[in-house]
Write a structure and sequence with these properties.
387 residues; Nucleotidyltransferase, domain 5; five-stranded mixed beta sheet; five-stranded antiparallel beta sheet; 12 strands; 15% strand; disordered N terminus; disordered C terminus
């Protein structure tokens, strides 16, 4: 019986009703509900005495708490919570420990509850972690934050390292134009090195389905020429960029509780980025900071990269002026953005995978004569062909 997923009162009512009607032997009922006979007798007695209210979950808190936290320690917890109003008990515990105050997470949480410093919407279980890259700079996630509580036509641009959660870029931009995004990425590549891959959604400026571009934009082509594997999240599936989504959620809570930085938004973002990277402990990192797990990429940025060199023996074809590939006399639509560029063809049974630099951009199905755009992000366990 899946009673453990029910409301506590509901599953107890079901038990006492069944026991009262003698639907099954008492021992059998207790076994099905996962309780002992004495507990079953207690529930039945309380129900008979006071009804449903008698079998509600009761507080296990003792009437007297001789070890209740002293006022001085509570003040230190409250002080740090007010300094970081968007931090929970786990993160505050690390900060307090660094100051020589050793309190359990549950004690800190109870102090916050006593001082009414936990909002109802924050009382939830943390989300489970999904995939994670094994080393820094294997994958960067990039997206714009929503405009809620933010002035301007677009929210801040953020770029986050998948392995360490280190925020590489957090920049207020005037628009989502490709020139502004490229400017921020060039600065990041110069100071932090070039990542192996990047994950984005299907928004501009890194994706376009207009004018025969089939997804490719000038910005995405520029990234590919740096030898970066480009991955795109599934359409209408923000969970693929879960780390970006959680970071934006934390940033949103900070905006709500610390005040909106209208006067100097970039200074506020710079301070928040430093705090996130070097001060704020992260649960998924064992309460370590992102900076403790991150290091710059050894791959250097090339402002003017040479033409891409595919592996020796690779099958390559040139995209014509119409954005098509000629394969045994048949024209396949690829992308007008790739006119004049060389692409690699990798055959897998009755399909041809088309790569530009290191990124797969199309899949050609020879059996049904269909060209399919590669829109979904490829999982981390999918190996790349030798390019």
């Amino acid at each position: 019986m899946p009673w453990k997923t029910m409301d506590v009162r509901e599953q107890r009512v079901k038990f006492v009703v069944a026991a009262s009607r003698r639907e099954k032997p008492f021992s059998t009922l207790c076994e099905e509900f996962g309780i002992s006979r004495p507990t079953g007798q207690l529930w039945l007695q309380r129900y008979r005495e006071t009804g449903v209210e008698g079998i509600a979950e009761r507080s296990r808190r003792p009437h007297h708490s001789p070890r209740q936290t002293t006022c001085g320690l509570e003040e230190q917890v409250v002080k740090r919570r007010r300094r970081y109003p968007d931090w929970g008990a786990r993160k505050l515990q690390v900060l307090l420990s660094q100051a020589g105050v050793d309190l359990t997470r549950s004690t800190i949480h109870r102090i916050l509850l006593r001082h009414d410093l936990v909002r109802e919407q924050d009382r939830h279980r943390p989300a489970l972690e999904g995939f994670e890259r094994t080393a820094p700079n294997e994958l960067w996630q990039m997206d714009f934050k929503g405009r809620k509580l933010w002035e301007g036509p677009v929210g801040p641009l953020s770029v986050l390292d998948d392995h360490s959660r280190y925020v590489v870029v957090l920049q207020a931009v005037k628009s989502a134009g490709p020139e502004l995004v490229r400017e921020q990425l060039e600065s990041a590549f110069t100071t932090c090195g070039v990542p192996d891959g990047m994950l984005m959604d299907h928004g501009s400026p890194w994706w376009s389905a207009r004018g025969g571009s089939m997804g490719a934009t000038k910005l995405s082509l520029w990234l590919m020429k740096q030898g970066i594997h480009l991955h795109w999240s599934r359409v209408r599936h923000p969970q693929t960029q879960g780390k970006e989504e959680r970071f934006h959620g934390a940033l949103q809570r900070a905006l709500e509780r610390r005040g909106v930085p209208f006067r100097d938004p970039q200074l506020w973002l710079d301070e928040y980025r430093w705090e996130h990277n070097h001060v704020r402990p992260h649960e998924a990192l064992g309460m370590r900071t992102p900076a403790s797990r991150w290091r710059p990429s050894p791959r250097r940025y090339a402002p003017n990269p040479p033409p891409w060199q595919y592996a020796e023996g690779a099958k390559v074809l040139k995209v014509d002026c119409q954005g098509k590939l000629d394969r045994h006399g048949q024209k396949w639509k690829i992308s007008k953005a790739l006119c004049g560029e060389w692409a690699q063809i990798v055959r897998v049974e009755q399909r041809l995978q088309v790569y530009y630099c290191t990124t797969m951009i199309r899949e050609l199905d020879l059996g049904i004569q269909r060209s399919t755009i590669v829109e979904r992000w490829m999982p981390s366990d999918v190996s790349q062909p030798k390019l």
